[in-house]
Fold:
Amino acid sequence: MIQPADTRTLAPGAMDAAASELLQAGGRMQMAWGVLPPGATHPELCYLASPGPRRPFVVWRVRPAGAEVPSLAQRMPLLGWYEREITDLYGVRFADHPEPLPLVLHAGSRHAYPMLDPHVSGEAMSFEPTPPALPSASGDVQLLPFGPVRADVVESARFFFFYVGEHILHYQPQLFFKHRGMEQRFEGRDPSAAVVLAERVSGVGSIAHALAYCQAVEAAAGVTVPRRAGELRVLVAELERLYNHLHYFGHLADTTTLKVGQAQGKLLEERAKQINAGLTGSRFLRGLLVPGGLRRDLSPGHEFGHDLRALRREVSAYLRMLERTTSYRDRLHDTGVLDQPTAFDQGATGPVERASGLDRDLRRDHPYAAYGETDLRIPVQTAGDAHARARVRAEEIDASFEVILHLLPHLSAGESVRSDLAVAPGAEGLGWAESPRGSLYYAVHCDAEGRLARVKIKSPSFSNWRAFPHTVHESNMMDYAINEASFGLTIAGCDR
Amino acid sequence: MVRWSWFGLSRGSATTAWPRPGGDDGQAGVLGMPRFEPGRCRAGCSDCVAVCPTAALTPAPSQTEPPIRVDYGRCIVCQLCTEACPTGALTPSPDWAFGVRRREDLHWRQAVESPAARALEQRLASLRRSLHIRHVDAGSCNGCESELQALSNPYYNLHRLGIFFTASPRFADLLLVTGPVTAPMRGPLRNAYEAMPEPRLVMANGSCAVSGGVAAGGYSTGHGIDQWLPVDLYLPGCPPNPAAIIEGLLVLLERMPQRVSGGHVEP
Structure:
């Protein structure tokens, strides 16, 4: 029983009908993962279903009968990557999978299903690089492989462009060069101490990861955090959104060759990070959260409020300037359009889906921390282009300032941590957070000693990388960098 | 465009004077490596060892040394030990500038030689003024990249120090590596290094690159880049902040003295 979701046990043969039922009700899959039950040699599969925008999550549990399980990826394309990941890590095959290729472990990895290996050897696997099988480019069509080491200071990934002149016919990203096996690093650890690992899955999402993880452990332990801790968690989560979104605009201005706009965006991001450090001791807001509340109390004082108000004034002026700049706006309008059905089917999340008309946000739809008592504006746009994605983020910046500044004078008194957190043997929990990039889920399974046996992480970029290529096919080389920047993707959390 | 020019000019220079004396390094409040005072350790206590997630703290095997061994190359600055320590032997500190030439300088030692006394390395002479860097992400959490990107913001304005990022390893003097080196990144990392002209330098940026960090020992990760390449500067930190990176680069270029020796930071 994965708290706080409802559980349905399904036979492999019943999955197809259940999938139809979910789709007809307007529901959507959120993630899927494998888990090795205690003492078992064969993995069990878990699917996290969202039956509707504000309805409780349901976990499907499926015990594969043989070596193969029906693939649901034809019906729910967003599941394609989850199924491939389960095949790579657990060896479970999915019958009639539309894209039966390795994903997380690149071809050439010499390792037999790492998540089935209970004895972590401490030795890294051997690896023989094997070029991916691609259709050959012929005639006027050219193939441009780009990466994994690319220009500038960026994360590692490889992109393949099939193109004619300026026109991109087909685009294929190859990710998971950065796969660190982070989920396995949690195994065997104490649930309270392992929060520092969650903070290091995706550096610029340290708070969202720590928060989703802590909430999963708290759900497993059946505890709620003190009111003050919930409020301070909202405060730092919105601070994380601020510096991430400011980074986003600096980067977007860079790709549209607006040099002063780039410099100003990066400067405002720096100011936000310095405010983070002054409040918490960490520019990335690390070292603060723990299952049960906070590791130490925070007292955001007069200076913090003053700095934040000053930053807000600068940010508003900056965003107004950007929006008034026609050369910038022209590059965003009609660039990289993600239509609503594709956004839904491919699992787009966060500002990306909200820019394509999907009005979903975990903070409002499945409230956690103190979001249930927070007045929150959730901006939605319908155009689905780069401009809509930027507009959503611009409005979210303002909404975040509002949430923090409203919270400051109303912080509850009292404790911000509870020390009586104990996880029962075999307990399981689910936690989530709306990170700056979208929905983030942690599923935590504990062993007979109450230690971590399995931690599954679904970061928002895992979802958005799946949707992104659909906006690149049949587009233009000149728009590629702008389009990519407008998605605000990271790779570390996706690759794990 | 005129509006942006005016906007930029009217705001004046945002760049800090640091590392010139009196300049602000921008790291007010940032916590660094915990300070270790073994004299405060209680006999038989190993509370810090139990909570350290990366084995930066280990029990000493012999009675002749302090009871805990500290390897700052593995420290991820999580501060768990400072919370667990019952006696104040490990305390939070602002010591984040931890760039060292030799890996052993990240191991805490009682007796410390003066780092300034070391002879300059001759092969650096040609690189001392300006530096071009090729960055390779070998499996980071993106925290290091976030801080490396910050080096180019108007506050730190790395260019003013004659230090630049370059796209091609052919033009690079320094290979700056983040991440523990995941299996698929071993080849591309090696290729980038081999494409560089001599003399070439390598910097391990962040605790993952120094020792593997939180990912050390996994099925897809190693224990840092010195398994694969010779390292000229180790900079632990999780992630090292922009000022720590600048200090590290200037130590590498011998434009600033190394301040860390035997796990101690000279003020």
The mean pLDDT of chain B is 89.
